[in-house]
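Lab notebook page, bench 4
Experiment: in silico fold of construct C2
Operator: M.H.
Input chain length: 196 residues
Purpose: comparison with the prior construct
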Amino acid sequence: TYHAHGLSIASALALPLIPGNPSSCEVTVDIVSLPHGSRCSRGTSLLTPSEIEFSVDEGVFLVSSGRSIAIEPTANADVHVLAEFVLDQALPALLHQRGVLILHASAVAVGDAVVAFTGPSGMGKSTTAAALCARGCDALSDDLLAIHFDGSGDPRVYPATPFVDLWPDSAESLSGDWGNGSAASEAPVRRWKRRC
């Protein structure tokens, strides 16, 4: 069981998230056999107003009603790639179904405030967040910022992934041991994940 973006998530798939309370899960991630798993060609399909299907090389993901992510993996699916897809694509779709505002951004906590960095890929959002973490800020999210609105319309941001994902040159430019993170991918260039 995990906690991310203000949600408790029960997952059959190991996810690199903050451990959560198993007694109160709002979202499930299950490995299943989907009845229409082979129906969608590679890509994304809106099946119904409450169902989005993603078909990728590693399998088919069905996101339903802001409550569940069902995965039908291919025979040789890499569980790390499946987990990355859940975090990068399926979970944002689920959050959107729940009415949460999704931004392509990294964010840190500065006291009681949240500072977010938006922009296209490769512009330094993660590097900026990592640099601020090195100076004592707390990382809240990397690459995906989910903004919830409470009953009075005030925005709320909750912690997401407990790491920042950096390219090697960014890691080397920061002081400290960023190069000692864990390899997130081998090709085309290694990227590093480090807990903040």
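Observations: The longest strand covers residues 43-48. Residues 79-97 form the longest helix (19 residues).
Next step: discuss at group meeting.
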